[in-house]
Input
Amino acid sequence: MYPDLPRKQRETAIIKEHPAIFIIGIGWVLEDGYPHEMRAADYDDWVTETVEKNGKMMHGLNGDILVWNPVTKRRHELTSMGIRVTKETLKVQLEMSGQLDFLERPYHQAILNDEIPLSIGGGIGQARTYMYLLRTAHLGEVTVTVWPEELKKICAERNIIVLE
Output
């Protein structure tokens, strides 16, 4: 849908029509040859064939729950979740993303050698949920960290007070 819009604007366009959506397979290459969004090739599975929709095979066992944010007037990601890579999907995704050298790293070796359990992950992002429920515009309004001075300046100009 919305092929003439940039990817994030596509999400905003559909979320205006539907108050909450779940997008599957983020990371898989779309018809234009580019992924909807880059996702870690060594984390969520975005290559496994899943269901056929309108005659097209869909891919991915991961997804995002998005809702409309009335403060920012755009999409708001509440969660990213999914089934993690197997040793087979890890290899495919690292090859697709040009990161095969990662296979030498300890974490990746542990997956390849069946030394760690496969998992399903995800959950509702607490800070993102707080933002949504409290109707805030920036993550810094609900979480404390060290924010760059430039960000604090931009937020202050917009009456957004970030926590420090």
